[in-house]
Design brief:
homotetramer, 303 residues, alpha+beta, Beta-lactamase, five-stranded antiparallel β-sheet, two-stranded antiparallel ribbon, 9 strands
């Protein structure tokens, strides 16, 4: 498969969409990113890397970080984890409080904000140095020691993070989080503030392609568990657009409001794409389109 | 892969669950089925069939029929279909009216009752002989001319089908269905009343494994479209338990309240399992467990 | 109090609103009413009648009929009635199915459509000749033998009454109505189709001012019960605008989509007003304004 | 009317209910109150006071305070106030976030927590010394300089006030509150922490009986505005039980989780009752019963 050529052709085809959508602007750090950027990197399980344009530019991974947090929690808690958070698609927008209220504080899945805030709480309760362990984990995953939190982004998100603060308070009210609300929120925002490039994300996510044992910085997952993580990504990774992504792309994946999307073709490759402009559901316009074209061109999808 | 042995071992392992759950009893025809039955049949794309116990006993396929209706509608309407029905998981129970109301009459996906009622309406509008065409289609799919509606079941469902009548009226109110409500409901209930065995279902669903062109009784689907149908099954096929099924089994599939479940391993096999006792979400207890064990034992899943 | 002069002045003040809003047009019979009409009639407990303009033109009373149905049911069932229907404000639009679903088929109050459909069911179960008894009751209330159903309106409402049919089916599903759905709906639509003038409504509603024993066509209510009926009108009589009406007018009342509104000043008077153009909540624009001005001018309200 | 005798007889009749219900125990200060207490005081517009048992024991007035806050806001903002908060009954429990979310941050009415938090925000923005002005206002209303906040209660409520913090954050997210969240919450909790006796509440609420100009500590309300405040109390004062209270008691009123209830008979009297044990809706069991018996015995209600 000539992935280099495919990536090039994909880019040509999605160029007409390059001005569609709006980048996230709820915090200054995201608002000031040049929206006219696009990067893509595909890494196969054999170790080959194919990339295009700004594949080495770091951006705010935002919700993509939830996959890392889930991997750590599953490693620590195993199936017990699902007593604290569900694994059903939410059927409503990612930040909905309604569903949280209806279901007595148990978030529908780990990829809505409420779910990821519970993951933060679990990591804080389980680890002596949650921030340190988290960084060690993702640095080993992408094999780059310079990956780090962007504290300016994290502080800025906390400052205007009224909705997430509402969610955290509601979870606390229902007894679903154990630790101090501010501690939980700050750790959550720090994890979201991590900056990585498409290449680093592609490298990190090959660990979830399931072709060899998963053991990073002491966090281990069985092959069966990785399959299951991918299943959760497939059904819940794109908020209110999980069905659409599954339909058009046919791979498990996760998006972030920074414009990044990662997808996994089990046993074959991981692919990351980035472009800041988002559609109305909060997913990168060019990123969605690029991945749709990738699986169409390669005829490779899980279905 | 010695599927015969695997099916046997699965059965032994799920025996402890044989009295768990309750069969559907909202109509007499379903209530009088002997609940102590179990059948399973796996058919590979190479044409081999592996079966266990009551694999040739016919049962009411109920919601599994929605996959056939979707295939016909996609063949007739193509991507235009998605203007009439969504493809996002519902996030609530299969018979919820709430979400229908919120989204102005557009059902979330074709596998909730509201969605399938819209499919019925489309088939009635598009075909001169909807009942005849439907039967020709599924008979060719499973290669058995004796497959038929059970009119007693259909009439009985209509008689006590207050909730579906409520849904149909609500759809009509929103202008989402074109034809007479009674006509649409009767066709819907007839399609649900079809009786097939596990073997027949496994045969029919190998058509969706996507290893050769799909063309049955004049209804054609491209490979890309079949992939997409499977994606919808994956995210929406199990009502409020789609995430759980995806997590435990890792295959696209569809269940029915008659106790049947069909799953597809693209390019490999289709498998049908049947046992009447249902869990609280309306899915066969032994069926769910059997499929979980199948993909665990074979290590074969899409993830 | 010179009510004649007050009515005249009110009319002058509301003239600027005479083209605001839109008359109901979901059935031909309502759509063809000349919208440029206004009538008002106030009848005191002493028997004096004050009227203005088209006070003797009959119009479709629609939901105002629910008050008559409630009076009959309370007379027949007493406090037992509240096991079948609630008495809390609905907090959502009058035709919402959501709340019905959430509360397992018990409508929030007798003045939302679901509640009135339950009242219809109760009357059918309790009376040998529901239609006859209903007509006898309202004819005696307004002292006019010619008041009657408009069968053309009733049939027309049934024909396009998908939403009410959805509600009735949902109630039947929950076991909240006993009789055949069509029977219940037809009786409901007949009651809504009654035509009365402002004068006839004012006369009928003086019976609820509570200044003498209530006993009409064999239906009796104690003074305490009438007080309570008025309390329900106060909190639930205006769908999603009950608070607004209570705030601006300060009297218990009931509106109908035909443009009529009736209000009661206990121990003093009943007043009916009619003008077909409705605001976005389904209440007569000029009617609401006229009653607001009435209680402002007279300084008479229950608060 | 021999109110002394009526109060005595009411007490005898409600004695069988003296152990029904549970006092609020979510903060220590409320949990440690002796639940076996009952007080009642009725004050007529002529100035006569009738009281029974612990009518002079102070208790935490909690949500009753919202009436004072509303009076101040209406005096400051007039009808403009209703752009910030609605006046429709909520139709759901007092602490529901669902409805808040659906309606984009505009609380349904000033008596649900979200509404009262908005009132707090308005007072902070409008007054130089909100706490001082609030105390001056209520002290003048009940003519007692010793009425005060209970800071231990206020701090304790803030500490475990996760739900109210969630609400405040959600309001801030929607831009409905202007000031710092902590500032708004603390002022809200201070207002709720005020302790008054039944006698003091009855005295304070005679100001709302509307028999003379309202002018206290510089906060003035026209008679028309007081009528309207009473209308809002009538439709929204009892959370999910507003219809029930209106039905059984037939007077505008407001309850608090401390077990107090105040009701107003316009132009006649104000009455306060207190007993700590609450029903499932959060209203005093004996208090509700006592007021029902009062209006039944006196035949005095607004309907």
């Amino acid at each position: 498969m000539d992935y280099n050529k495919i990536l090039e052709e994909i880019y040509k085809e999605i160029l007409p969409f390059s001005e569609k959508g709006h980048q996230a602007d709820y915090i200054p750090a995201l608002a000031k990113v040049n929206p006219d950027q696009f990067g893509m990197c595909l890494k196969t399980v054999a170790g080959e890397e194919y990339s295009h344009l700004q594949a080495d530019t770091r951006f705010s991974i935002q919700s993509i970080t939830k996959v890392f947090a889930l991997a750590m929690c599953l490693s620590l808690k195993g199936e017990e984890l699902w007593k604290r958070v569900g694994k059903e698609p939410s059927g409503t927008a990612f930040n909905s409080l309604v569903q949280l209220e209806v279901e007595k504080g148990i978030p529908r899945n780990p990829f809505i904000n409420a779910g990821a805030i519970v993951l933060s709480d679990i990591l804080i309760s389980s680890l002596e140095d949650p921030e340190g362990d988290f960084l060690r984990f993702i640095r080993e995953l992408c094999d780059d020691e310079s990956v780090d939190f962007n504290m300016e982004v994290a502080m800025s998100e906390r400052e205007c993070g009224y909705l997430n603060a509402a969610i955290a308070n509601l979870l606390k009210y229902h007894g679903t989080i154990e630790n101090d609300i501010e501690r939980v929120l700050m750790f959550y925002f720090k994890m979201c503030s991590v900056e990585m490039s498409c290449r680093e994300l592609a490298r990190a996510f090959t660990a979830f392609t399931n072709c060899k044992p998963f053991d990073f910085a002491g966090f281990k997952l069985s092959q069966s568990r990785i399959k299951r993580m991918n299943a959760v990504m497939q059904t819940c990774g794109f908020y209110d657009e999980a069905g659409e992504f599954s339909y058009l792309v046919g791979l498990p994946g996760k998006s972030g409001v920074g414009g990044g999307i990662v997808a996994i073709y089990p046993m074959r490759y991981a692919v990351a794409v980035w472009s800041p402009r988002l559609n109305s559901k909060g997913n990168s316009v060019m990123g969605m389109k690029a991945l749709e074209l990738l699986t169409t061109a390669t005829q490779e999808s899980i279905f």
